Amino acid sequence: MGLRRRRIVRSIIIGVFSVLLAFLLLAPPAWLFISSIADLKDLLRIPLRWIPENPSFSRYAGILFGQGPESEFRKIMANSLYVATFVTVICVALGVLAAYAFSRLRFPGKDRVLFILLFSYMLPPIAVIIPLYQMFSNLKMLDTKEALILVYSAILVPFVIWMMRTYFDTIPRDLEDAAKIDGCTHLQTLFRVILPLSLPGIVATLLFAFLMSWEEFFIALILTSTPQAKTIPVAIAEFSGRHSIDFGMMATGGVLASLPPVFIALFFQKYIIGGLLSGAVKG
């Protein structure tokens, strides 16, 4: 009887903490959505009103279908999608090839190069932003999406190499030996054997690269100045002015900015979980 009671108490405690954790995780996005459809007077009211009196989707309509100043946000969303997509493709393409080389090939200084790559990824953006600004200014590439693609790719390729190298290390070498016996070269082995087995890890890495380039703020703030190249984080920050803050538009922009990563995560959920679990255990 005592054992059964302990199990019941444990189940109740786990349930309570699960509900509390779910509330803590879901409350911020729920409030973000409520703020996007509430009047400004509801957002500034004391005590706070959790359910708006007159909910309205006019901000979403203005951004998605309007022709006023809010319509610039559509162009900025397209900029973010363009930059994040190209950065992801470049980083995964280069990172997978380099990670396979670091995982399987032997060459002098391999470990040193890996640590140099890790060090370059750990550099804070503020330490390199002035040289980057001067370089792109001399190249007449300020306020362009291509400048952001180059910088983000240079920053994220080391991250992709480290993640994919760890994943490749979990794949048995016997599979490659069998492929080489059949006459495959290193590249043929990579594309015909390793990549199909590494699909979960590639998808997980792809999502991380996409999210990092999608949400980056500081570099985009310095290198862009017009809607032709600005990205979503910069646009959302500009809803806060010197004398006023448009909380509703900031929340609306935040909701719209969160939709693509959420959809990607839901669509590739199986591969993401498999990639994280497989890459975390070496054997």
Structure in words:
The protein has 283 residues and is mostly helical. It folds into 2 domains: 1-56; 58-280, MetI-like (MetI-like fold), CATH 1.10.3720.10. The protein has helices spanning 2-37, 40-44, 58-65, 72-104, 110-122, 129-138, 145-169, 173-181, 186-197, 199-215, 218-223, 232-237, 247-267, 269-280. The longest helix has 36 residues, at 2-37. The chain is globular, with a radius of gyration of 24 Å. It comes from Candidatus Caldatribacterium californiense. It is found in: Cell membrane. It holds the Pfam family BPD_transp_1. One of its GO terms (biological process) is transmembrane transport.
Topology:
Layout: H1 2-37, H2 40-44, H3 58-65, H4 72-104, H5 110-122, H6 129-138, H7 145-169, H8 173-181, H9 186-197, H10 199-215, H11 218-223, H12 232-237, H13 247-267, H14 269-280
Helix pairs in contact: 1-13, 4-7, 4-10, 5-7, 7-10, 7-14, 8-9, 10-14
Shape: globular
User: From the alpha-carbon coordinates, what is the Rg to the nearest angstrom?
Assistant: 24 Å
The first-level CATH class name of the largest domain: Mainly Alpha
E-strand count:
0
Regions with little confidence, pLDDT below 50 for 5+ residues? 279-283
Backbone structural class: mainly alpha
How far the N terminus sits from the C terminus, by CA atoms, comes to 42 Å
Q: Please name the CATH topology of the largest domain.
A: MetI-like fold
Transmembrane segments: 12-34, 81-102, 114-136, 148-168, 189-211
Domain ABC transmembrane type-1: 77-268
Membrane topology: Multi-pass membrane protein
Family: Belongs to the binding-protein-dependent transport system permease family. MalFG subfamily.
